[in-house]
Amino acid sequence: MKRLILIRHAKTEALQYGFSDIERQLEQRGIRDAGQIAQHLSDKGYRPGLMVCSNASRALQTCHIMAEVVGYPVFTIHSEGFIYDGYTTADFLDFLGRQDNHHHEIWVVGHNPDIAMLATKLTNDHFDHYPTCAAAVIEFESDHWGDVAARSGKVAYFVFPRELK
């Protein structure tokens, strides 16, 4: 079985004049939420074999906080520009299919609306509400990432920070 955890980056500061969107940083609440969600997922037994995130500052920050909480080596996080730039389900499945099969669980930190649409396309569920730092745990009955296909996943768990308060 393969497990994919799709995480929307944590709460971010508003876009300010003179700064680009890719440079936006996490708010204090976002820093707190990222740690809390990571700890919650870890307490439920979820552990990343690979962590991948967008190259946007807010996604990198979210990913680094989560990695530290769960004991994942921060220096091995994969930053992927295509997660920020936008992608199709086929693009993502192509990327996923190139991952090493010894990773049974991959955490991906990205952005809305893409992360919610991807969760919807990989499962038969609908994700109309995907708040900041939400995490969808999707399981696939496959031993190979290359065999993962659209609508083949099952949502095992969905959580967001406000549920934990």
Structure description:
This protein has 165 residues and is of the alpha/beta class. It has a single domain (2-164), classed as Phosphoglycerate mutase-like (Rossmann fold, 3-Layer(aba) Sandwich), CATH 3.40.50. The protein has helices at 28-43, 57-70, 81-85, 89-97, 114-122; strands spanning 2-8, 50-54, 78-80, 105-110, 135-140, 154-159. Strands 3-2-4-1-5-6 form a six-stranded mixed β-sheet, with helices on both faces. Helix 1 crosses helix 2. The relative contact order is 0.24. The model has no long low-confidence stretch (mean pLDDT 96).
How does the overall form come out from the CA principal axes? globular
Provide the succession of SSEs: EHEHEHHEHEE
CATH topology, which one? Rossmann fold
Per CATH, the superfamily is Phosphoglycerate mutase-like
Oligomer: single chain
Strand content: 15-25%
Strand tally is: 6
What's the pLDDT, averaged over the residues? 96
> How far is the first residue's CA from the last residue's CA?
31 Å
Low-pLDDT stretches are none
Whole-number tally of structural domains: 1
**What structural category arises from helix and sheet content?**
alpha/beta
Give a nutshell description of this structure:
It comes from Breznakibacter xylanolyticus. This protein has 165 residues and is of the alpha/beta class.
Protein topology:
Layout lengths: L1 E7 L19 H16 L6 E5 L2 H14 L7 E3 H5 L3 H9 L7 E6 L3 H9 L12 E6 L13 E6 L6
Parallel strand pairs: 1-4, 2-3, 2-4
Antiparallel strand pairs: 1-5, 5-6
Descriptive terms for the model:
globular; Rossmann fold; alpha/beta; six-stranded mixed β-sheet; 32% helix; 165 residues
